[in-house]
Amino acid sequence: MRRWTCGLSTQCAKIKMLENSMVTERPVTYPVSEVVTPRLFYQTAASEWAKKAARPVSLRQLAVFGRKLTEEKLIQGANYIVEEMAIRLAHRILDMQRMPYRVMSNPHMTQVFEKYTLAFDRCRKFGKIKDMEDNARFCVLIADLLDKHGNIVPDLIVGVKEIVRTSSHEDDGPMLDQFMRTMLMSRISRRVIAEQHYSLTQAFNRGQTNDDKDNSYIGEVFLQCRPSEILQTSIKTVTDSIRASFPGTDMPIFEIEGDVDTAFPYLRSHIDYILGEILRNSVEASILFAQRQGTPVKPILISVSSTNENVFIRVSDQGGGIPLKELPSIWSFAKPMSDNDPLLFTGKVALALPIEALHEIDQQIKSTPLYMRTESDNEVHTRDTMTKLGIGIALARVYAEYWGGAFEIHSLENYGCDSLLRISRLGTKLEQLHVNRI
């Protein structure tokens, strides 16, 4: 069912060379923005739109609305989404306006602000959607915005790492972490409602009105997520990928126990990303620890339980654990950087690279050919790139918390980690548009 816009490829081949290089940092030039002038930065209609509160939805609401589709329902949904996207963009524009000059003068942040400003203007000026012809035009707008915003996450991450690298302000790290979590959570929210409407419109145009109660999908909402199925899919995807990095190395055996046939509604791309990050880190840690110890790779135990309201998935590995003093940093998007940083889980990531190397990664990301993707928001699922940028686990937590869930890692140093994921079983939790924890 995943079908349309573009995502990123996983090619970052020069990163290994860049990791070992110590290039002298020198200024990098960027084109001057034609949109974000000093006068426009603060004089914008966004301040008026930001006075309106966002109206979050739940997975159940998305699914119920998508049943028994009619033209009237699609038009109603389109008007909600075009206004809601403008409101949510306006709030983020104001957040960026309130950030210190040293943050928003970063070229990557300027590019994000420019894209958000243009998208906000297009949404607020679109006008009332009155018929299916208007809805078709709106779907063209959705597809165009999703494509053009494909590099937002790399821009934000590289921008944050540049700012932290050069900043002398001790409070920049926590401030940027809060900023990043809010930006990413809001970004997910806009893509969820936009992609859901696009998917429902496509289904309706194919003659599918979702009247059948046995449908597995309503738009992008997968109604029957079962741990027994999604875990096997994630295990295969992760082990196939890691075999390429560790040729000839035995993979850990996976032991799965518990209430594996519990069903819950979710977005398949979200759960695939979360589980993929958890499993990939456990597998790589298990392999590397076994190599250091000169022992066989230990099995990974996956336990599933459920209550009336929640589903719990615990992944227990024997991969050596994480030093307690380093554990908090795995959740940060603004880790302090140095050329000798202790790097968690796997190899070196962009945290330890000179700034010029970060620019090189950024250019590789943006110059990689696009392809027709098969998952929602696929650029964040390009795990190779996200790992190089050092945000895989932190981003997995944002995805877990978006639908009112939770993701924690408990470490037993020199033994292993327990990764615990909590998911709402009923799908009644509203989108979490703000994250307060630093």
Give a verbal description of the structure.
The chain is α+β, with helices and mostly antiparallel strands. It has a single domain, classed as Histidine kinase-like ATPase, C-terminal domain (Heat Shock Protein 90). Helix content is 49%, strand content 11%. The strands form 3 sheets. The protein has a 5-stranded mixed sheet with strand order 4-6-7-10-9. A 3-stranded antiparallel sheet has the order 2-3-5. Helix 5 packs antiparallel against helix 7. The chain is globular. Residues 56-221 form the Branched-chain alpha-ketoacid dehydrogenase kinase/Pyruvate dehydrogenase kinase N-terminal domain. Keywords: ATP-binding, Kinase, Mitochondrion, Nucleotide-binding, Pyruvate, Transferase. GO terms for molecular function: ATP binding; pyruvate dehydrogenase (acetyl-transferring) kinase activity. Its main location: mitochondrion. One of its GO terms (cellular component) is mitochondrial matrix.
Structural class by secondary-structure content: alpha+beta
Count of separate DSSP helical elements: 15
CATH class: Alpha Beta
Strand content: 5-15%
Give the helix level as a range of percent. Answer: 40-55%
Instruction: Estimate the global geometry from the Cα principal axes.
Output: globular
Q: Gyration radius, to the nearest Å?
A: 22 Å
Q: What is the CA-CA span between the terminal residues?
A: 36 Å
What's the domain count?
Answer: 1
Mean pLDDT: 82
The major sheet is characterized as: 5 strands, mixed
List low-pLDDT spans.
1-31, 338-381
Q: At CATH's second level, what is the architecture?
A: 2-Layer Sandwich
CATH fold-level assignment: Heat Shock Protein 90
Would you count the extended β strands for me?
Answer: 10
